[in-house]
Design a protein that fits this description.
CATH topology of the largest domain in chain B: Rossmann fold
Distance between the termini of chain B: 61 Å
Shape of chain B: globular
Structural class of chain A: mainly alpha
Order of helices and strands of chain A: HHHHHHHHHHH
Radius of gyration of chain A: 19 Å
Number of strands of chain A: 0
CATH architecture of chain A: Orthogonal Bundle
Oligomer: heterodimer
Largest sheet of chain B: 5 strands, parallel
Shape of chain A: globular
Strand order of the largest sheet of chain B: 5-6-7-3-8
Helix content of chain B: 25-40%
Number of strands of chain B: 8
CATH class of chain A: Mainly Alpha
CATH topology of chain A: ABC transporter involved in vitamin B12 uptake, BtuC
CATH class of the largest domain in chain B: Alpha Beta
Strand content of chain A: under 5%
Radius of gyration of chain B: 19 Å
Number of helices of chain A: 11
Largest sheet of chain A: none
Largest interface: A-B, 25 and 26 residues
Chain lengths: 274, 226
C-alpha cells in the first residue's frame, strides 16, 4: 500500500501494534476491577503534569510521570475510604486533575497552547523513533509482568478479601498496578491523546469479555481486538484523512456494537430453536 | 495448638462499638461454630480475625504454621459469596484451580497432584460437568458450591466459613457437617463456621461460641402519633 512508503506511517503502524498489546493488557484488569474510568482519570491528571512541565520548564514526560504516580497513591487511598463506591475516587481525581491543569495552563498562556492540544488529542503520525522504542520496551515489560504475575493478579481481581487470605499483598499490588497503568498512560498520551486513551484501554477489554469464556482467553482476545482496531483504524484514518485516535475509537465502538448485535441475534436464534 | 487466638478484641464502626472485649480460640482438630442474632457482628469478628478489618484494641493471631510445621493455609468463604464479582471472566475450572495457587503455586506450574485435587473438589460439590461454564452464568447455589470447591481444592489447614450452608437442603447440610467433622477429627483441620443452624449442627460441632448483642432487641417501635 502507498501509505507504507512513508516512514512516519510505518512508525505509526509499529506504535499502534505495541499499544494494541499494552492498552488491553491493562484494560482487562481495569474493567474487571470496576476501574474503567481510571484510564480516563489518569489521562486528565496527566494533563496537569504536562501543564506543570511547561510551567517549570522541565520535560513534560517527567512531570507527568511524577504527577500520575502521586495520583495512583491518592486514588488507592480514596478507593479504600469509599470501598463500595469506587467511582467516587475516580470522579474526585478526574475533576481535580482537569481543574489543576486548567489553572496551571492559565499561568502558562502563550506559545505552549499548541503543545497542550497535542497531549489532548495525540498525533500518532508524528511519533518519532525514540517514542516507538520506549513503547516497544513498555510492551515487552508488560507482557513479562503478565506472564509472571497472572495468577496473583487473577485472584486479586477476583476478590480482594480472598487475595488477602491467600497471603497476597493486596494494597501494594493495587498501588503498583495503578502506577504501572499511569506510566503506560504517560507514555501513550502524546501518541494517542488524553481524550482517547480511555477508549483504547477499555473497549477491547469490554469486547473480549463478551466473547471469551476463560480469563486467559479474554486477555488473548482483547489483544487480538486491540490489534484489529488499531491497525484498521490507522489505515482508515489515512484513507479518509481523519484524526487517527478518533477513527480508531470509532472502529472499536463499531466492533463493540457488531458483537452486541451478533450476540443478541444468536441468543434469539437459540431460543427459537428450543 | 491454637490456629486462631483472639484476645480482648474491640472494634468500632465509626463511633459505634460493635465488638467489645471479645476473646476466643480455635485449635487444630476442632470444629467450632459461631452463632448470634442478626447484627451481632459475627462476620465483623471473622474479618477482624483474618486481618481484613483492624481492631481498635486487642489482638487477633492466626498461626503461621500447621501442626506438621508447614506454612498454614486458610480456606475462607465470605458471606453472600453468590454476589461476588458476577462479571468476572473465568471458567469454573480456572476459579477452582486458583485454590491451589496459595499452595506454593503462584509462580510454578500446577502438578498432576494439583489437578487431581481440583477434580476431586469439583466432584465433591457435583460441579465437574460444569467446569467449562463461565462463573457469571451460574445460579447463586452453584456459585456457593464452586466457592466451596475452591476451598476444598486448597485443602487448607484452617477453614473459616461464613454461613456456607445458606440455601442447602437438610440432607446436604447434614452431609456437609459430617465432612467438616471428619476433616477436623481425622485430618487435624481447624474449623470455624458461622451458622444460624445451631440445632442441627449441635451433634457435629465440638464447641459453640455465641456472640450476644448488648441491646435486648434489634427491633424498635416505629409508631408515631399523627
Amino acid at each position: 500500500m502507498a501509505m507504507f512508503s512513508y516512514e512516519f506511517m510505518i512508525r505509526a503502524l509499529i506504535a499502534s501494534c505495541f499499544m494494541a498489546v499494552i492498552a488491553p493488557l491493562l484494560g482487562v484488569f481495569l474493567v474487571i476491577r470496576r476501574q474503567s474510568l481510571l484510564a480516563d482519570t489518569l489521562s486528565h491528571v496527566s494533563l496537569a503534569g504536562v501543564a506543570l512541565g511547561f510551567l517549570v520548564n522541565i520535560n513534560p514526560t517527567v512531570t507527568t510521570l511524577l504527577v500520575v504516580i502521586a495520583a495512583a497513591f491518592i486514588l488507592e487511598y480514596l478507593r479504600t475510604i469509599y470501598s463500595t463506591y469506587s467511582e467516587i475516587s475516580t470522579a474526585i481525581l478526574m475533576s481535580g486533575g482537569l481543574a489543576l491543569a486548567l489553572v496551571l495552563m492559565k499561568f502558562n498562556q502563550g506559545s505552549k497552547g499548541m503543545k497542550i492540544n497535542e497531549y489532548l488529542f495525540g498525533s500518532i503520525v508524528t511519533i518519532n523513533r525514540d517514542q516507538v522504542i520506549i513503547l516497544g520496551l513498555m510492551m515487552v515489560f508488560l507482557v513479562l509482568l503478565y506472564i509472571l504475575f497472572r495468577r496473583p493478579m487473577y485472584v486479586l481481581t477476583f476478590d480482594e478479601d480472598t487475595a488477602h487470605v491467600d497471603g497476597l499483598p493486596v494494597k501494594l499490588m493495587s498501588i503498583l498496578f495503578n502506577v504501572l497503568t499511569g506510566t503506560a498512560i504517560t507514555i501513550m498520551i502524546p501518541i494517542a491523546g488524553a481524550l482517547l486513551i480511555s477508549a483504547i484501554m477499555v473497549l477491547p477489554a469490554a469486547i473480549s469479555m463478551r466473547l471469551g469464556k476463560g480469563f486467559n482467553q479474554v486477555i488473548l482476545i482483547s489483544v487480538g481486538v486491540g490489534l484489529l482496531g488499531m491497525t484498521s483504524g490507522l489505515v482508515a484514518s489515512y484513507q479518509l484523512d481523519t484524526p487517527a485516535g478518533a477513527t480508531i475509537t470509532l472502529i472499536f465502538i463499531g466492533i463493540f456494537l457488531l458483537i452486541g448485535i451478533g450476540k443478541g441475534l444468536k441468543s434469539r436464534y437459540a431460543k427459537k430453536l428450543k | 495448638m491454637n490456629y486462631i487466638k483472639v484476645e480482648n478484641l474491640t472494634f468500632y464502626y465509626g463511633d459505634e462499638p460493635v465488638l467489645e472485649d471479645v476473646s476466643y480460640h480455635v485449635d487444630a482438630g476442632e470444629f467450632v461454630i459461631l452463632t448470634g442474632e442478626n447484627g451481632a457482628a459475627k462476620s465483623t469478628l471473622i474479618k477482624n480475625t483474618l486481618g481484613l478489618l483492624k481492631p481498635a484494641a486487642g489482638k487477633a493471631t492466626i498461626a503461621t504454621h500447621n501442626i506438621d510445621g508447614k506454612p498454614l493455609s486458610i480456606g475462607y468463604i465470605p458471606q453472600q459469596i453468590s454476589s461476588y464479582n458476577a462479571g468476572f471472566p473465568s471458567t469454573v475450572l480456572e476459579l477452582v484451580e486458583s485454590g491451589r495457587f496459595p499452595r506454593n503455586r503462584w509462580f510454578k506450574p500446577l502438578t498432576k497432584k494439583d489437578h487431581d485435587h481440583v477434580k476431586k473438589a469439583l466432584l465433591a460439590v457435583n460441579m465437574w460437568d460444569m467446569r467449562q461454564k463461565k462463573i457469571g452464568e451460574l445460579s447463586g447455589g452453584q456459585k456457593q458450591r464452586i466457592s466451596l470447591a475452591r476451598v476444598f481444592a486448597t485443602d487448607p489447614d484452617l477453614f473459616i466459613l461464613d454461613e456456607p450452608t445458606t440455601g442447602m437442603d437438610e440432607t446436604s447440610r447434614g452431609d456437609f457437617y459430617k465432612l467438616l467433622r471428619h476433616n477436623a477429627h481425622d485430618h487435624d483441620k481447624g474449623i470455624l463456621m458461622i451458622t444460624h443452624d445451631h440445632e442441627d449442627i449441635k451433634q457435629y460441632a465440638d464447641r459453640h461460641i455465641r456472640l450476644i448483642r448488648k441491646e435486648d432487641s434489634q427491633w424498635r417501635c416505629f409508631h408515631m402519633s399523627s
